[in-house]
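Training component of the fellowship. As part of building independent skills, the fellow (R.M.) carried out the full modelling exercise for a liganded target. The chosen ligand was tetrahydrodeoxyuridine. The inputs are recorded below so that the supervisory panel can assess the work.
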Amino acid sequence: MEIGRIEITFKKYHAVGELAPGDIALIGKAKLLAKSAYAPYSKFRVSAVACMSDGSFVEGTNQENASYPIGLCAERVLLAAASSIAPGLSITTMAITYESDEVNTIAPIAPCGICRQSLLEFESRFGNSMRILLTGTEGLVYEFESVSALLPLGFKAKHLGR
Ligand code: THU
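Fellow's submitted model of the complex:
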């Protein structure tokens, strides 16, 4: 027996201004977008904005429901929209942020497990790395070079022989 160990590596910026102008703009879009999330139950508004391979943008926000389990995360709303509107385009970079009426939102949050798996499928489908930028309401930004970096040991089509 031996102990296996997996390390997640990401870049940590202490201020949004340390990023490239395109990334700053993407985060700015996401911060504005969070305000329009439909989250009357959790009061936790999440937004995701993707820069597509042709330079266009696709957005998603969380969509809740009085029947709680029906609710959708912002990331998967975005992926469904991107795959419907522009099925041939990969995502170059996705910015994800959030705001809340009830909890401290200073630190970045990372996508939930279901969203990580959905993001991985999207990344694998096109074979291009999707950069992920995570931020809260203050300056801290985490950058992952790919979804695989955020979800090591992910389950992929190849495990099904596809
Ligand atoms: N949420 C997202 O939109 N993305 C995530 O990755 C985590 C959670 C949403 C779902 C729900 O509407 C609210 O945040 C609280 O869980």
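The panel noted the following from the submitted structure. Residues 39, 42, 44, 46, 62, 64, 71, 73-75, 111-112, 115 surround tetrahydrodeoxyuridine (CB under 6 Å). The chain is about 25% helix and 20% strand.
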